[in-house]
Amino acid sequence: MARYEVFVPAAPPRVPMDLTLRLEADHWLGALKTGLKRLGEAHPTNNVLCDIQADGSIHVTDPDSGRVFRIVEIPAITPVGPMPVVPGPSPTAVAPPPSAPLPSAPLPPAPAPRAAPAPLPEAKPPPPVAVKPGSRPSSHAEHVVEHKTPVLTPAHPIGRMAAVVKDEDVLADLFLEAAELARITDRKAGLGFALDAAMRIIGCEAGSVFSADLGRKDLSFEVVRGPSADKLRALGMRVPIGVGIVGFCAQEDVCVAVSDVEKDPRFYRAVSDATGYQTRSLLCAPMARHGQVVGCLEVLNKSGAKQFDQKDLAVLSYLAAQAASFLGRVDG
User: Fold this and answer.
1) Average pLDDT by consecutive 10-residue portion of the chain (332 residues)?
2) Whole-number Å distance between alpha carbons of 194 and 322
3) Which terminus of the chain has fewer Cβ atoms in its 10 Å neighbourhood, N or C?
């Protein structure tokens, strides 16, 4: 199989930002289908616009959404070994067999003996030669084992900056990892999986998953992580919808990042005062299903006193959407 790089443009909320996937497929269309399937997206309609660029990349436009997918085949490099040594003719003359007729003309005199040539330096194998996918290497390289062929990945896929590519790789790995939720059937285990993934990828000290009780119009702590997790579980506190930053997110169905909670008048200090845990920064995303908020996913205090960025917002928003879908499956 050939290796491809598939650029998938953003389509919130399922794909919150541009991504680049690297995968194997029989052809470019198979690579596009495989990449979209991994992200949980349907394949574009069959009436797509396909344009092959001068650099060999293939641009596929979905006329329904206007999104342009770019597929590039990653060239494989096949190492070629040294040419096999073919023994030369023996310097010793061999007499013809007795039955062979003698030549009619006399043989020319034997050349005068020469001095032995200086030994040649040890031959080094030639550098690797690029082989186009589908072609066969030259006969002297057919001993090369195919599964050892190295694959080169472009340093800056489709011309984007390295920092952007790194963020896209993080999100691509996240999408594949979030597929594990489909195998979890326990409610708390699934919500804990989503929270642990958010804290690990974003890099936070603490976090919580809130469940919305629409009858009581409040939010309860269902899963808690961090230094004060045990104390918070023991208190059994609730946060009214509309109160605090998490209550605001649940009420307005928006994702909010606050780099300094002391400067935000919406910050609900009661939880921090009760647990003694100091909250510096906060990122919260609602878990909504069919237009109704069923809870919130919140992480606190980004490590290294850094501010939350667009990638963090995209990660938490995506995990919150996955957690909402998970609740719809396990709760029925």
Assistant:
1) 90 82 86 86 66 79 83 76 53 49 51 54 52 45 37 42 54 75 92 95 95 89 93 90 92 90 86 89 93 94 85 90 92 78
2) 8
3) C
| Polymer length of the chain | 332
Task: For CA atoms 135, 138, 141, 143, give the dihedral sign.
Answer: positive
- Is the separation of the CB atoms in 82 and 126 below 8 Å? yes
Contact 295, 210 (CB under 8 A): yes
Q: Helix, strand, coil: what percent of the chain each, to 5?
A: 35, 25, 45
Q: How far apart are CA 287 and CA 218, in angstroms?
A: 14
Residue type, 249: C
* CA distances from residue 96 to 23, 242, 308 in whole angstroms, order as listed: 64, 108, 90
Residue 160 near residue 188 (C-beta atoms within 8 A): no
Calpha distance 81→83 (Å, rounded): 7
DSSP state of 107: P
Question: Which three-class secondary structure state does DSSP give residue 234?
Answer: helix
Compute the distance between CA of residue 283 and CA of residue 302 in angstroms, rounded to an integer.
Answer: 9
Among candidate residues 193, 190, 172, 194, the one with its CA nearest the CA of residue 38: 172
